[in-house]
Design goal:
about 300 residues, two-stranded antiparallel ribbon, 2 strands, about 0% strand, globular
C-alpha cells in the first residue's frame, strides 16, 4: 500500500467501517462479558448466576429471548464510528508526532505503544457516555427500555456530568488495550514473512490483529471490570444511612474488588471479552487496512 498520507476523512471512514464490522459480529459476547463483570460473588443480585460463556448465553436466550443478546446495541452502534475512527486516526497522527519528536523516519515499537496509549485516552473522552448507556442497558437488573431513557433519567437524577462517570477508568482501560494492541501488532508484523499478495497481507493483518487484541485484553480486563462497576451505578449504604456510590476511582476500586471478591474477580468476563476482542482485533485491522488500501488506490492510483 502506498505511503502517501490520506486526509483525515478517509481514516475516519475506514475506522468507522472497521468498528461497525467488528461490532455486528461480536456484540453478543460483549453482553455476556458485561453480565459476568457485574456479577458480584456467585450471583447478580436478581437470583441469576452465570457459570461461563455458554451458560450465560443459554440463560439469556432462555429467560429473556434471543433479541436480548443485542439489547443496547444502538448506543455502541452510534458510538462505533467516532470510537474506532478516533482510535485509528489519532494513532496515525500520534505516530507522526512522535516520529518528528524523536527525529526518526521509521516506526518503532516504543512509538507504537506510546501512540496507541494516547489514542486510547483520546478515544475515552469520546465514548464514555455511550459506554455508560450500554452498560446500564446490558445489566440483568436493567429496567430501561432504550438508550434515550437511560440518558434522560441519568441527567434528571444526577446531572449531565454524570454521563461521564467512569471516564478515568475508561482512560486506563483504553490506554492499556491500545498500547498493547498497537505495540504487539508492530512486533508481530516484524516477525511475519513479508506479504507478497493481498491474500497474504490479509492473513498477516488477521494474525497480528488477533494476537494484539488478545494481549490488549490480558492487560486491560481489570480496568474494564472497574469501569463496568462504576458505570452500572452500584451503591452502598454507610453506617449513618447515607447512600453513596460503591465504586468511584479506578485504583481504590481495583483494591476493593480484590479485597472483597479475590483476584479472579478482576478478570470476570475475561473469556467472552477475549473471544470478542482477540478475533475482533483481527477483523478491525483487516477491514481498516482494506478500506485504506481502497482509498489509496482511488485517490492516488496504484
Amino acid at each position: 500500500m502506498s505511503e502517501k498520507p490520506l486526509p483525515f476523512i478517509y481514516q475516519f471512514v475506514s475506522g468507522a467501517a472497521a468498528g461497525v464490522s467488528e461490532l455486528l459480529v461480536m456484540y453478543p459476547l460483549d453482553v455476556v462479558k458485561t453480565r459476568m463483570q457485574l456479577q458480584v460473588g456467585s450471583g447478580t443480585g436478581s437470583g441469576v448466576a452465570y457459570n461461563g460463556v455458554i451458560d450465560c448465553l443459554g440463560q439469556i436466550v432462555k429467560r429473556e429471548g434471543f433479541s436480548r443478546l443485542y439489547k443496547g446495541i444502538s448506543s455502541p452502534m452510534l458510538m462505533e464510528a467516532p470510537k474506532r475512527a478516533t482510535k485509528f486516526a489519532c494513532n496515525d497522527s500520534y505516530q507522526k508526532m512522535f516520529k518528528d519528536l524523536y527525529g526518526v523516519d521509521k516506526l518503532t515499537q516504543q512509538i507504537s505503544i506510546l501512540s496507541g496509549s494516547l489514542a486510547g485516552v483520546t478515544e475515552a473522552c469520546v465514548i464514555v457516555p455511550f459506554e455508560l448507556v450500554k452498560i446500564r442497558l446490558q445489566d440483568v437488573n436493567s429496567k430501561f427500555n432504550g438508550a434515550m431513557e437511560v440518558v434522560f433519567k441519568t441527567i434528571r437524577e444526577t446531572g449531565i456530568l454524570s454521563l461521564y462517570n467512569g471516564l478515568e477508568s475508561t482512560m486506563w482501560r483504553n490506554a492499556f488495550w491500545n498500547g498493547g494492541y498497537f505495540g504487539v501488532i508492530f512486533q508481530i508484523r516484524a516477525l511475519l514473512p513479508k506479504a507478497k499478495t493481498n491474500t497474504e497481507k490479509t492473513t498477516n493483518d488477521l494474525i497480528a490483529g488477533t494476537i494484539g487484541g488478545t494481549v490488549g485484553t490480558l492487560l486491560n480486563t481489570p480496568f474494564d471490570v472497574v469501569k463496568s462497576r462504576i458505570q452500572s451505578g452500584a451503591t452502598t449504604t454507610l453506617a449513618d444511612g447515607t447512600v453513596v456510590p460503591k465504586y468511584n476511582w479506578t485504583w481504590p476500586s481495583l483494591f476493593k474488588i480484590y479485597s472483597e471478591e479475590g483476584f479472579t474477580a478482576l478478570y470476570k468476563g475475561f473469556i467472552p471479552k477475549i473471544l470478542r476482542l482477540g478475533p475482533g482485533g483481527g477483523i478491525m485491522l483487516v477491514v481498516f487496512n482494506g478500506m485504506m488500501a481502497f482509498f489509496q488506490e482511488m485517490k492516488y492510483g496504484k
